[in-house]
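Q: C-alpha cells for this one, please.
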Amino acid sequence: MTVPSVRSIEIDGGLGTLPSEMGDALVVVGAASQGPYNTPVAFTRAAPVVRNYGATGELVEACAYHTNRRGRAVIPVRARATVPGTVGALTVTSAAGTATAHAVTYSGMTPVIKSGMSPPAITLSGTPLGLYALKLQCDTEGAQGVATIKVSTDNGATWNAPPSLVTATDLVLTGTGLTAHCPVGTYHTNNTWTADSIGALPVDDFDAVITIVTGGDASGSALTCTISQDGGLSPPSPVTGISGGHVTVGGVQIDLAGTWAAGDTITFTAVASRPTAGQIAEAIASLASSKLPFSTILIASAIGAAEFDAIEGAVATLGAINKPQYWIGHVRIPAPGETSVEYVANVLTPLASKTTVRGSVVSRDALVSSSLTGRLCRRSPALTVASLETFVSAEIDIAELTLGAIPGVQLTDLNGNVIFHDEMIEPGDDDLGFLALRTWEGRDGVYVNRPRIKCAAGSDFMIAPYRKVMNLASKLLRSYLETRLGKALRVYTKTGFIFGPDASEIEKQGAATVLAVLGPKPMLSGLVIAVSRDENLLQTRECTVDMSIVPLAYIEGVVLTERFINPARNLAAA
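A: Here is the predicted structure, written as C-alpha cells:
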C-alpha cells in the first residue's frame, strides 16, 4: 500500500454460535426552508438553528427537540430536497357540518415580487411541478404584442429560450404547471418578477385543521381562527388573526376569499419536501471532513428502499475513515385513513428485505410535542429515539424502564385511548426489523420496545448498544494502531515473522486504550486483542490485528415461577 493506514474487517455471526458517547453531538440530516446545503455546523441551542434554517421543518424540529429536551449539541446538515412536498385537497366544512364551496386555495408559490420601472402586476396561477426559483424578466420593451418576457426557473442562472411574446393576459410557463397573468401596460427591460415554490412547499408532515372563531369577510381584518397540526387530536393553538385572507400553517400559506362563519373548518394534509437518495448520500458525505465529534446520524426525512441503500453506502464510507456511525431513519407515517394492515403491506413489507448492521428504521407515527411551538403534531417519533440514543452511554439499552418514558411523545388521545400503533398491543413491526414504540401496563408514558437494528436474522448486531459499543471500540483501537504506523518492529531472523514481545506490546497497549474508556462502566464483558504472528512483514508491510469483544447481555424476557408454600408441611415431614 502507498498510503499508511489501518483497515478493519468486521466479522458478524460470532454470537450466533451459542446454543438456541455522551459528549457527541447528534447529526440531523434533512430538508429545511433556508440555510447552507451540506455544511455541518454545531449548535447547542434551538434559537440559532431557527435563525439559520427556518422556523419549521423536520430538520429544525429534531434539532430543537434534542437541544431543549436533552441539553446537548446538534449538527444540522441541510440536504438538497428536490422531491417536492405536497398539499392535499383543501376540504371546507361549514359550521353545520356540511361541505361548502367557500373559496380557499393553495398556489404552491410565494407571492410575486415585482421590481423595476412601473412594472405591471403579474400574478401566477396553477400548481408548480417542481422546486422553482422563478424569475420573469422583460427582454423586449413595449406594450402587449411587442414586449417579450424570458423565463428562468433557477433565479436567472439559466433562461428558457426563446423569450415569449406578451400577446395576451395569460402566458403559459411551459413545463412548470404555472401560468403568468400579464395585465395591460408597458413593460420595461428593467422589469423583473420573482416568486418561488421552495419557500411555499411544506418542509414538514402534518394534518391541518383551521377552525374559524370569528367570522367575517376574508378581505377584512375581522377573521380569526385556531390551528391544529395533528388533525384535531389535541387542543388547537390560541386564537390568531387572519390578515388579508392569508393564514399560514407549518410554513404553508392558505388563501381565503368570501364570507366565513364561526365554526367553519378547512382541513388538508401536508407532506414535506424531501431529498432524493443521492442528496441524502451527498449530505452524509459532507461529514467526512468535519472535525466535530459525532457518532449518531438521524435522517429526518422519510426513507424508502433507494434511500436506505444510499444511507448504507454513505455511512460505510465514513466508517472506512475511522468515523463509524450508528444511523436512525424512519419510513413514512400512515396516510389519513390508511389501516394498519394496509400500512404494513404498503410501507413495511416492501422494506422488510433490507438489512443493515449499522442502523435502525423507525416505523409508524405518534403525537410529538414540538419543542418550537409546544403544539402536538402527528409525526415519526424517530427524532425522539435518536435524541435518547445520543444522550445515553453507548452500552445503554434505551428500552430500559429505569430511563423513564420518552418525553413529549404520546400514543393516546386526550381521553387516554390508544390511537397509534402500540407494539405491546399489536406486535409485528419488530418482527419485520423495525424499531417500534410501546406502552407498559401500569406505567405512564411511551417507551421504546427494543432499540432494534434493521439486521438480518442471526446477526450479532440485533440491538443498538452492540453497534454503538463496537463503533466506539473500533475507533479507539484504530486511533491507537495509527500511532504504530511507521514505527519499527523486530522480526525473527529465521521466519521474518513479527517478534513475539513486540506483538504482545501492541496487544497490551491496544487493549489498554480500549478498556480505558469501555472498561470502567463497564461497556463490555471482555476484550481480546490478537496480533497475527505468521505474516511476512518485510514483504507485505501489513499486519493483521483481531479485536474480539465479549459483549454485555441484555435480558429481554424473564420466566417467573410462582407458588404458595405451607410451612406446616415441613413440620409434618420432620
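A few notes: The chain is about 20% helix and 25% strand. The first strand starts at residue 25 and ends at 30.
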